[in-house]
Amino acid sequence: MKKIIFFTLLLSSLWTHAQKKTLQAQPISQNISVDGKLDEQAWDTAAIASDFLMFEPDNGKPIPEARKTEIKVLYNNDAIYIGAMMYDDEPTKILKEISQRDNFGTADIFGVFINGFNDGQQNFEFFVSAADVQGDCIMTDAIGEDYSWDAIWLSKASLTDKGWIVEMKIPYAALRFSEENKQTWGINFFREIKRERKKYTWSLIDTKIGTFTQQNGDLTGIENIKPPTRLFFMPYASYYLNAADGQKTYGTMKGGMDIKYGINDAFTLDAILIPDFGQAKYDDQILNLGPFEQQFNENRAFFTEGTDLFNKGNMFYSRRIGGTPSVEPDLNDNEEMIESPQSVNLINALKVSGRTKKGLGVGILNAVTEKTFGTIKDTITGETRREIVEPLTNYNVLVLDQRFRKNSSVSFINTNVTRNGHYRDSNVAGLAWDLNTKANTYNLYGNAKFSTINDTEDKRGFYSTITFAETSGNYRYSVGSDFVTKDFDPNDLGINFYKNYYNFYGNVNYRILNPTKLFNTFRINYNMYSEHNKDSGKVQEANLNANLNLTTVKNNYYGMGITIFPVEMYDYYEPRTDNRYVIIPRKFDFWGSISTNYNYKFALDLNPTLSVTDETGRAAYGVDIGPRYRFNDKLLLTYTFSFLRKNNNKGYIDSYDNDDNENTPETIVFANRNVITYANTLAGKYAINSAMTLNLSVRQYWSSAENKNILELEPDGSLLPYTEYTENKNSSFYSWNADLSYSWWFAPGSQLSALYRNNASNFERIIDKDFKNNVTGLLTNDALKHIFSISVKYFIDYNAVRNKARKRA
To answer: Is 145 helix (H, G, I), strand (E, B) or coil?
Structure first.
């Protein structure tokens, strides 16, 4: 009898977990005050969503009764309301660090995931922490969570002697849904108990299945609501005060506006008129000795918010827009460039994006940058002239992305750059696919791209990749291959470093899906990679890699790995001349990583690396050390020290033609050098409350490359001593950046921000090995540039203005 009862309960449990959960929303006519109390009568009679199940680490385990969670949903003609009661039998232990929006720090979190079309394609996610901090993002299985998306909504969190409460009001303007009279939305609720590092959802998110957005429950009962007119204006005004040595202090005023308009229930137009990016985070510049440009993160909100569609096929690198000028003017004898702008001003930009109920996503982005000039000086006569370094330029991106079966998509992408006049134009088109089986157990991913460059010499190139993978279960694998032609060039609006090769790669991995007595997570990977030059067939890179990543039951992370390069490789990029290569010796790379539990006031990140070659004395080693200390729920400081040393590094420094003999190949000069890098970064946050924060960000960087002896690259890829070259090609770059900022969200979507920034940098051929001199040399009035700025932006909702006008009438 006991066995029968046991199996009955087991089957009942499995049946409960397998069924799609449903919650009924309750219509209301009374006003709801978003105060974190849930004391209006409507909350008392609303249906309850409960019985949460663990998402991580012990997937599927029911939430303890002492931590039960109860959710209720109300709605009216303007918004949906969420009321959440998170019970906790130890309320004094609830973590509640105050942080900036979208960055919850060490705090408990509640969230709601909404899909107005209930198509398993895209969730709009809204979070509130126990410290009353908001966060929101768009979630897709292909991209993950995109926190650059921001919506305007209200929330309030409050602590009680039974746990904590969250109350939300999410206007329909922040969501997307159809115009049907009866709505059924996809919905899920999320809770993280931070001190235990345990995450729960109302509708089970089964980690054995390679999808997140398709495992929502249903929200029913919403009837006779209409998508509102989504029209928002965000005017801004900024003032900048600039000061530097030898320059008169001056101030500038800027003003402009961002506009968001909902074209229909699916598509949104975003536009910026006279943009201002002066308060964007500074770039972490480095001493770049390699053959490729340094790639920077995008810090401008317009180009980060809601751009998941534009990232299809990896063809769009937004830093091209307003980046470094593309034209190098011809210089006559005795002329030099005395003024060369480092960036180009953006005149305006707009994007249209959205997805229909049938799964067709459309993205259009257009931006225009202004004509930009540099100044050239004749060193004999002293006369100057201005020449174009970037003509008036139009950038355009078009994406059509058709999703089907809720978990697969095929995309067409086109990027186009048109420069006014007789300058380089480019066009790149691509087809990308991401196909999954119905059960989300296997994936076929790939793309094919074609580039056309119209310049003094027209070029056409091709790139393709394809990968097949098993995406479910404890054991998983993937195999793939790339093929790239010599003339493939997407770099006017994309970024691509490697070309003229084909490769093969594979991965086999094992992971645990539920915790053990020792580990919360455990994953071991084995990777194989082989790359060959397309013309010669020579091995450009070949390696075998094994790595282990785990989290203990105390939520400390440990990782380690080894990469073996078993054969000599032929580097076709470092010589920076077509059809030339340098031989890279066999080597071993080792790395380790430790990250202790951030729940504790003190935590530490440690990342050592070591690289050893079979060439005597040629090796590299380094370490990143990052202690962090949370003084209280308001104050947090983090510090990182980074060190890297490369001994007997071989690298390109110069090249020149042999004019006396056309049959002699170009002379390519390398150096045997020691490269040393130090970097110190300090970040601090003091939260006055959930709407006001003070932030500090400081970075000191110094890297030098000291040439020990000069080498000549031979046609067979070897390096031989070259005593004829006498120029000084040592390199030393040091920089300092410091930002102190204040941010106040004084109304929904409205922000006042103030920033003081000082920075300095210097590149020289003389290496001063006194570390102190390299730091203090930049911290003087002669070196530092100072900027103080204050900016105010105000959010205006057309619907709110219209409603107020009607009431007054």
So the answer is: strand
